[in-house]
Structure formats: structure tokens, C-alpha cells
Design goal:
This protein is mainly alpha-helical. It is built from 16 helices and no strands.
């Protein structure tokens, strides 16, 4: 394991710096757009554009890598992403920002795919689970730090956009100077969404709805806190608490899911997510403390849903379907993430700021009802057939190549 960590240390460093910049940029743009007077619907479109670009990148980047290689692809995408971060302050216009946000999403999809394919190449069959867990901790930890950087300067100034650009540019260094041979070319996974629904209707519908709710939080959570009249520092703390709670809940929920029917656990987790949304909807505007408590509960349960649903689907899948199935679920999650900010922003515009979490409460309640219905339609997977839960980030299809539950991997 030590030799593997030494081999991927530079990649993990690049991923950490990159994710830090991306975490800061998402919240920064939401706060700055709100401060510039963009309508809530315009902010919703702005954030949806990122996820649209991300989905497109996951499908098209493998072609780019096959043509020019991993390092050149990473260098080009990081350069464009860095320039895009700075371009936001040159022309403050909703339509221009939407285009820039879509470009950023496309670039970050490719950057994640390159890093994850490289990490996969260095990991061994014996330590893939531990490597994936470390990568997940790097993911959540870096995004949390990115949120906290929001309080370093006034979002109305140039400074934070410069920091985002600097972080993205610095992520180039470990990759560009690497002497390790490039991994194998990326492969575009052949998706069959009909098969995904056949294997696990709950996971298919659940990932779509989880995308609806999760993207609404990532996109509009900073606006929610800002419109309640709180200072920038509390926006950073709220987002950070939510993400750290998600990190803390991953392993306890995973351990429980290995021992019970995952559909039952999915039902319970969605109800708890709905309860957290109800708390934030009804009393977050009365107390900063209750707002942080609600954010912690929301993060612990809502952000954990994707990994739980992924594992539930694999309980019923054929071994050879692992990558294609999970890539299909990630696509559904991405499609839901495109729509989520639009619906949430419209809800906020119609019913007020706190309606953001009234919206997530409704989405989670619908998912809970569907999970309850699915319990009546299929018997529980036998214990020997259950896959072990492993916390998996919703980053790119390449992360599933790293997952040790994939049985059809070459040694």
C-alpha cells in the first residue's frame, strides 16, 4: 500500500488542489451572481450549465484523450478552466457566465477522468478499496476547504476569482512533471438506460431524484444563506458543515447497509433527508444555529444517497454489468443535476428563500414513497449476493474502474 500511495501522491495532490478550486468557484459564483442582481432563475440556469457541460465532458473527453494523450488533455483542460475562472470578472453578464460555466463543467469532467484513470492504473487489485476510500476523503476534504476559502476576501472583488485560477493552474504542476507512463486510453462506456431501469428501478429513479436535490443544494445553498442576511463567513461555514457531515456519515451508513435490506435503508435515509429539508425550510431563518444543525443533517443523509443507491443496484446486477450500470446511474444523476437548480430556483422565486429546502423535502419525500413501493415489488437480496458498500464519489465514469467491486478487471 505504501508503494501505491507513493506512486499516486502527486495525483492526489493535483486532485486536491483542483477540487479545492472547484469547490470555491461554485459557491463564489452563486454569491457573486446574487450580489450582481441576477434573478434566481438566471442563477439556476447558470448552475445547470455546469452540470450540462459535465455530462457532455464525460461522453466526449475519452475521444480527446485517445487523440492527444492524458497529459496534453489535462494541460489543455486545466488551462481553459483557469482562463474561464478569470473571464467571469471581465464581463458580468448572465448569458456569458452560463457559457463559461458550461465550459468549466466540461473541463472538470475531463480533468477528473484523467486523474481517476491514472490512479486506477497505479492501484492494485489488493488495495483498490483503500485507494478509493482515500480518494473519497480527498474529494470531500478538499471541497470543504474550498468552501472555507470563500471567507478570505470580498466576493465582489477580483481576489477570489484569482485564487480559483491559481489553484487550477497549480494542479497542472504534479501532472505535467510526472515521469510515470500514461495509462491506457479512456474508453467510452456503452450505456443502456433501459437495462439500468430493469436491474434496479429504485436506483435509477433514486439517482435521478438525488441529482434533483443534491445539485439544488450545491448550486443555491450559498444563495440561501446569503438571502437570509448572513455574512460571507457563515455561508462558508454552512457549506463546510454540510460536507463534513456527509463525510462523517459515509462509513456508518455503509456499515448498516451491509447488514440490512438497502431499500429499507434508502427509505429511512430519504425520510431523514426530507426531515432535514423540513427543518431548514421552517426554522432556518430564525436561528443560525438551527440552520447549521439542519445543514449537518442534510449533508449526512442526502449526500450519502448516491453511493447507497449505487450499491443497491449492484446487488441485483450481473458481474459483467458493473461499469456500464454504474455509468448509467451516474448519467441519470447528472441529468437530474441539470434540472435540479432550475426547479429549485423557481421554487425560491415563487415561495421565498427557504423554499429551497421545501423543494428538496418534496423530492426526498417522493423518493421515499417510491422506495417504500419498491419494497413490495421484489424480495430482499440474499446476504451472500449483497455487494459491500464502498463510498463512491459522483465524479466521472472512470471512478468505477477503480472500484474493487468490479470483478472483470485484469490483474
Amino acid at each position: 500500500m505504501r508503494s501505491t500511495l507513493a506512486a499516486i501522491a502527486a495525483l492526489l495532490l493535483a486532485a486536491s488542489v483542483l477540487l479545492m478550486g472547484n469547490g470555491l468557484q461554485g459557491s463564489l459564483l452563486a454569491v457573486r451572481a446574487n450580489g450582481e442582481g441576477f434573478t434566481l432563475l438566471q442563477i439556476g440556469f447558470l448552475m445547470s450549465a455546469y452540470f450540462a457541460g459535465y455530462v457532455a465532458g464525460c461522453r466526449l473527453i475519452p475521444l480527446m484523450v485517445r487523440n492527444v494523450g492524458h497529459i496534453r488533455t489535462f494541460t489543455a483542460l486545466a488551462s481553459v478552466a483557469s482562463a474561464s475562472a478569470l473571464a467571469h470578472v471581465l464581463l458580468i453578464d448572465a448569458t456569458v457566465w452560463m457559457v463559461l460555466r458550461a465550459v468549466t463543467g466540461f473541463c472538470f469532467a475531463g480533468l477528473a477522468m484523467v486523474i481517476e484513470s491514472w490512479i486506477n492504473e497505479k492501484a492494485t487489485n489488493a488495495n483498490r478499496g483503500r485507494v478509493l476510500s482515500i480518494y473519497r476523503m480527498v474529494d470531500l476534504g478538499s471541497v470543504t476547504v474550498g468552501q472555507l476559502l470563500l471567507s478570505l476576501a470580498d466576493p465582489a472583488s477580483f481576489v477570489l476569482f484569482a485564487i480559483v485560477s491559481i489553484l487550477i493552474s497549480i494542479s497542472l504542476v504534479p501532472v505535467a512533471l510526472s515521469t510515470a507512463p500514461s495509462p491506457r486510453p479512456l474508453q467510452t462506456v456503452n450505456l443502456d438506460l433501459r437495462r439500468v431501469f430493469q436491474v434496479s428501478p429504485l436506483a435509477a429513479v433514486g439517482c435521478l431524484l438525488a441529482g434533483f436535490a443534491s445539485s439544488a443544494f450545491w448550486s443555491l445553498g450559498p444563495v440561501f444563506v446569503q438571502n437570509l442576511g448572513h455574512e460571507i463567513r457563515l455561508i462558508a461555514v454552512f457549506m463546510g458543515v454540510t460536507i463534513l457531515s456527509a463525510a462523517a456519515a459515509q462509513w456508518p451508513l455503509g456499515a448498516i447497509s451491509d447488514r440490512v435490506d438497502r431499500r429499507v435503508l434508502a427509505f429511512v435515509v430519504t425520510l431523514l433527508s426530507a426531515g432535514a429539508g423540513l427543518l431548514l425550510w421552517t426554522i432556518a431563518d430564525r436561528s443560525a444555529v438551527w440552520m447549521l444543525v439542519g445543514g449537518g443533517l442534510f449533508g449526512a443523509f442526502s449526500i450519502s444517497l448516491f453511493g447507497l443507491l449505487l450499491t443497491q443496484a449492484n446487488d441485483y446486477a450481473q458481474p459483467t454489468e458493473f461499469v456500464a450500470l454504474n455509468a448509467g446511474l451516474l448519467l441519470l444523476y447528472g441529468l437530474g443535476s441539470i434540472v435540479g437548480p432550475l426547479l429549485a430556483s423557481q421554487s425560491m422565486q415563487w415561495f421565498g428563500t427557504t423554499a429551497l429546502f421545501g423543494y428538496t423535502m418534496l423530492i426526498h419525500a417522493l423518493l421515499g414513497a417510491f422506495a417504500l413501493w419498491r419494497l413490495t415489488r421484489r424480495p430482499t437480496a440474499a446476504p451472500r449476493e449483497r455487494e459491500k458498500f464502498i463510498p463512491t464519489p459522483a465524479t466521472s465514469p472512470m471512478v468505477f474502474e477503480l472500484d474493487p467491486r468490479r470483478p472483470d478487471r485484469e490483474s
